[in-house]
Specification:
Length: 130
């Protein structure tokens, strides 16, 4: 028998959906549905890992141009951006921070490893990949 209860015009799957991305604000928090920058959940979002900061070099998908990748840094988004800026300045090159990974243009692995060891002696910094 059919029910006459309205589903608020959302349909059967409407109750399951949640806004994940908005063209106006970008990524949104699944809990409070605010922009990630304005999230009011109060939970700091730290990358999960094994506690090892890995520095590697990669050329895949970059037309043969090498970049130095820094993964596993136990900092929040703002700390990653600040550390990325410091590393880029020290290496004299450009770069970015994407999805918790710091990218520095060029092959600066040894310099980045030394800088990270001096900056944070408690971090275990390793050179990853060949």
């Amino acid at each position: 028998m059919k029910s006459n209860k309205p589903l608020n015009g959302l349909g059967a799957l409407g109750a399951l959906s949640g806004l994940v991305y908005s063209t106006e604000t970008g990524r949104t928090c699944p809990d409070c549905r605010q922009a990630k920058a304005d999230c009011r959940c109060g939970r700091p979002v730290l990358p999960k890992g094994d506690g090892v900061v890995r520095v590697s070099r990669e050329t895949k998908g970059r037309a043969g141009k090498g970049v130095t990748l820094v993964k596993g840094v136990p900092l929040d988004a703002e700390g990653l951006v600040a550390l990325g800026k410091e590393l880029k300045t020290a290496c004299g090159s450009g770069g970015t921070v994407k999805d918790g990974v710091i990218e520095v243009q060029g092959d600066h692995c040894e310099r980045v490893v030394e800088l990270l060891k001096k900056k944070e002696p408690k971090w275990q910094v390793k050179r990853a990949g060949g």
